[in-house]
Task: inverse folding
């Protein structure tokens, strides 16, 4: 598995330091240059970076805002209501992203949300919320109901019990799911290329695709851009690694 992922990554980094005429030559016989990085770093890169950050942060915030209370409700409700809710979540989760593009394009056109970041955030939120609810549910089910009953006896209301008793216990799961949603929405591509009508507003993933055209491929530039666009998400992953590891390990046994 290390070779399967490591070799392509190594080739990407190596190619980013080559000239165009050295890409398909001997792997280690070339003159290292930063020309590809100099060509790629510019206003378009910063604009796309801002778009990716806005999409990822906005989607993560809205998904957690909807999924956290929804997952808690699904975890605490039993019987046929819970079964129907879980069944619908599975059906929504199985719906392919491509099937939603045309209906959402028409809806956003009527709502005047095309060519806006808000439209992409709404579409990604709708896509990832069922996934987040299903991941969060086991964390809320692991919270002992006796703690909520004790807080209720002390006079706490439903909202206070949720905010001061349930949420702190399930915070590891919320952080884990939030990180996963951020990583998934960072790579947003399909909705971006369809709902942004101006290519100048594309996020990083769509900017990468623009480097491939019918007139050829600028391999060093494409690889340099791949490295540059991976740096922010690598930083987020390293910062969240501890919490992500603990949350995934806890979720796998609940």
Result:
């Amino acid at each position: 598995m290390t070779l399967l992922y490591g070799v392509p990554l190594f080739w990407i980094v190596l190619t980013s330091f080559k000239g165009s005429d050295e890409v398909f030559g001997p792997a280690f016989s070339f003159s290292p240059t930063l020309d590809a990085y100099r060509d790629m770093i510019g206003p378009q890169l910063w604009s796309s970076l801002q778009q990716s950050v806005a999409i990822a942060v906005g989607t993560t915030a809205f998904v957690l805002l909807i999924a956290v209370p929804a997952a808690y409700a699904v975890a605490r409700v039993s019987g046929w209501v819970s079964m129907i809710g879980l069944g619908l979540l599975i059906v929504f989760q199985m719906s392919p992203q491509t099937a939603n593009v045309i209906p959402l394009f028409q809806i956003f056109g009527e709502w005047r949300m095309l060519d806006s970041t808000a439209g992409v955030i709404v579409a990604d939120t709708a896509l990832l919320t069922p996934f987040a609810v299903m991941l969060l549910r086991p964390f809320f089910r692991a919270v002992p109901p006796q703690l909520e009953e004790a807080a209720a006896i002390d006079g706490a209301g439903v909202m206070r019990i949720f905010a001061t008793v349930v949420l702190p216990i399930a915070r590891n799961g919320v952080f884990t799911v939030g990180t996963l949603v951020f990583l998934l929405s960072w790579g947003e591509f399909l909705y971006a290329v369809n709902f942004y009508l101006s290519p100048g507003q594309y996020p990083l993933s769509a900017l990468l695709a623009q480097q491939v055209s019918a007139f050829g491929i600028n391999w060093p530039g494409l690889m340099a851009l791949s490295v540059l666009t991976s740096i922010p998400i690598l930083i987020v992953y390293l910062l969240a690694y501890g919490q992500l590891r603990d949350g995934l390990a806890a979720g796998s046994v609940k």
In short: Residues 54 and 234 are 17 Å apart (CA to CA). The mean pLDDT is 84. Strands lie at 212-213, 216-217. The longest helix spans residues 43-76.
